[in-house]
Each structure stands twice: as C-alpha cells, then as structure tokens.
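Reopening this ticket.

The earlier resolution said the output was attached, but the attachment link was broken on my side. Pasting everything inline this time so it's all in one place.
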Amino acid sequence: MLNNQEIYDAIKTMRHEYPAAGTTLYADTHFHFLLAVILSAQSTDQSVNKLTPALFDRFPTPQDLAAAEPDDVEPYIKRLGLYHNKAKYLVNCSRKLVSSFNGRVPRTLKELTSLPGVGRKVANVVMAECFAIPAFPVDTHVSRVARRLAMVPPKATVLAIEKRLREAVPKEKWLDAHHSMIFWGRYRCMARNPRCSDCPLLPICVTGQQNVI
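Inline output:
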C-alpha cells in the first residue's frame, strides 16, 4: 500500500496531466446542481447536461418540482438509465426541500443525506461544489483508481477509500484531488482498455504492469 506522501504525489501527477479538472455538470442554482448530481448516477455528465436545460426551465424552483408528479418529470429525463426511479427521487427530494428546509439546499452531510436520492457521494459533491465545504466525494472512477494504484486494499469499501484519501491529502486540496482522480479514471485509467503503456504512474500500478507485459 502507498503511504500518505506517495498517494499525494500520485494525485499531483494526475493534476499535472489534467490541470483544469473540475466539475463538468452544468447548473444555474444550487437546487439545479443537486438535481444534476442525482441524475448523474450511472449516467455520464455529458448525457445529463444534454437534457437538464429543458428540465431546469420547466422546474425552476423546488416548489415547482414538488408540485409535480414523477410522470411529469419522466419525459425530460427518459434518455437516462433508471429514469423511472430518478424521476421519483427528483420529485420527492424537492418535496423534502420544501417541507423541511424552506426550499433551500441544506449544507450539512446529515441534512443532505436525509433527502431522497441523496447518498454520501452526492452530499459530498454538493457540499464541496456549492458551499466550498471540504469533502472528498468517491465515485466509481475514484474507487477504481485508488484500488489500482494500491492507495487502498483491493476490496476497500467506498467509505474506507474516502477516509484513506482524506488522511493522505491536505484538506484544502480534497476537491481538486477528487476531480483529478475522476479525470484520470475517465481519460487515462478507464475501466476497459486503460492507457497503461505511457502512464507516468505505471511503476506503482500492479494492474498497469500486468497490462503491458
């Protein structure tokens, strides 16, 4: 397993390759950003961005979406996977925002995860992106990269991965590190056909060394 400094050095290498890594979801309000993050589960940010302008125009506020039914939302998101469930999440999340938070997106992990469709990863993304609250969201890309580079054991849970990365990376760099690892997972260390042959992190990657043998 890599030690703290080795983990941080690896992430700095990722940042050097993708210096502009940041959120690729588009939204005009905190409420709409929350919806976009919920929709991005098991969908690409690009696919979410294609349909959210019409969705956001139709439902500009939590009150507007809370007054709708999932059937009203489905036509706007039906190109996404799991759109039936996601439509329910969006409506029920909006109703909870209106009933419990006066229509405002809350700022704490406990409050955010009380919203339908919002797990720890979504909550961490919203806290970091909307409110600049230090958080280290762990998605499938971050998990894959952390395991392949021996930052964590192969069977580490998402929560264990988050804890380990928070230990190794300075708090003020958590969000940059999160984005750097996502871009690394998207464009360098993909689930299939990773670009191992010219990877600067190949010496510490067991998976990559096996791929180039």
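Reporter confirms the inline version is readable. Residues 186 and 192 are 10 Å apart (CA to CA). The chain has a mean pLDDT of 96.
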